[in-house]
Amino acid sequence: EADVFTYDPGFTSTAACSSTITYIDGDEGELLYRGYPIEQLAEKSHFLECCFLLLYGELPSAAALEDFESRVTHHTMIHEQMQYFFRGFRRDAHPMAIMVGVVGAMSAFYHDSTDINDPWQREVAAIRMIAKMPTIAAMAYKYSVGQPFVYPKNSLDYAGNFLHMCFAVPAEEYVVDPILSRAMDRIMMLHADHEQNASTSTVRLASSSGANPFASIAAGIACLWGPAHGGANQACLEMLREIGTVDRIPEFIARAKDKDDPFRLMGFGHRVYKNFDPRAKVMKQSADEVLGLLGIEDNETLKVAKELERIALEDEYFVSKKLYPNVDFYSGIILEAMGFPTSMFTPIFALSRTVGWISQWKEMISDPEQKIGRPRQRYTGAPRRDYAEIESR
Ligand code: SDX
After folding, report:
1. Which of 6, 284, 295, 390 has the most CB atoms within 10 Å of its CB?
2. What residue spans carry the Basic and acidic residues bias annotation (predicted)?
3. Tens digit of pLDDT for each residue in 54-82?
4. Angle, nearest 10°, between helix axes 232-243 and 249-257?
5. Can you tell me the ipTM of this complex?
6. Does residue 24 have its Cβ closer than 6 Å to ligand 1?
7. Closest by alpha carbon to 148, among 165, 124, 172?
């Protein structure tokens, strides 16, 4: 029987919705934010300017950018009482578990004053989410390492503020390294939005019922955590560490090709890209640049990653299945060089993707024709039949 999917502005099928925000051409390896190529934005723009672009559709004037950055900066603190949510977690809780819980709890602090039918209040919710996610992610990290929380500093830019909240300690001054801050900002830009990926679709479906944006984004964080999605950056670095040296690569390539082995090359393949993920190319250049500037260009993990990529891209299995490195293949190498544990890789993906989630939420909620999402199925169960009395079973 034909796969007949009805189309409407809501969310009912794999052709889920129409959107003006991000365009992907999987065959050409093209990614555009509101029409601008990701390669140009990664080189010339910065994360908050990309946030403005994704939210409002155009690059800002200098005055508009200054106003936007000021509004975000002045919403980076979270309600003081929210810190008690962190203390309910075990110290070894994964930071993603903490983020799911704390972001969901934002509903109890900010939702009451958020009428999503009021365009201005939708703006405020968007600004709050973008502003507070780095603070929550940094607090999740601090809690997991048993260090005191560090408040945001308005004198720092968005990426530098996040690094400061993660790595500063009361005992000594932490000076944000501009190399690391620029690299972090670029990582955030590369992860900002990506059309209707699993977590964005989760946010759209959850909020299509009218659920508040904070709870809907908590659902997106839960979805992103999976190793087939945002959790791949952590899984990829752990895989590269397990491979250890280039001479062990063939063993893992063989495992990835073995249909009876569930192992897959983490950071490889994509549901849409059947060519290079353009973000992976930028990330690879950034890894070379950052590790070079940090004087660790002979990093063994980077060597293994590059050799693994070279071998895989010459292997018939990967070539025939059009499997290329994706955004998660090199990102962990940079984040590890910055001093982050692997458990913080996906939280950084989540805080970066928040602008994509909230921009797509705003686009959907602002559509007066929007309906609740209702995916359909292809039923393959038992045909209609009458009840069987227990004696006859
Ligand atoms: C992200 O959707 C998005 O936009 C996501 C994302 C975003 O920005 O939001 O781009 C972020 O999630 C990137 C993907 C991160 N995940 C990983 O790196 C995990 C490793 N990759 C795989 O799990 C896999 O490639 C997926 C989940 C990404 C895609 O899975 P599919 O849909 O099964 O892949 P496919 O249809 O392209 O697979 C084709 C074939 C299959 O074999 P056959 O069934 O044809 O025999 O290739 C095989 C797959 O088994 N395959 C792999 C593989 N990925 C696919 N084999 C070995 N290693 C891999 N990594």
Report:
1. 284
2. 383-393
3. 999 999 999 999 999 999 999 999 999 99
4. 130
5. 0.90
6. no
7. 165
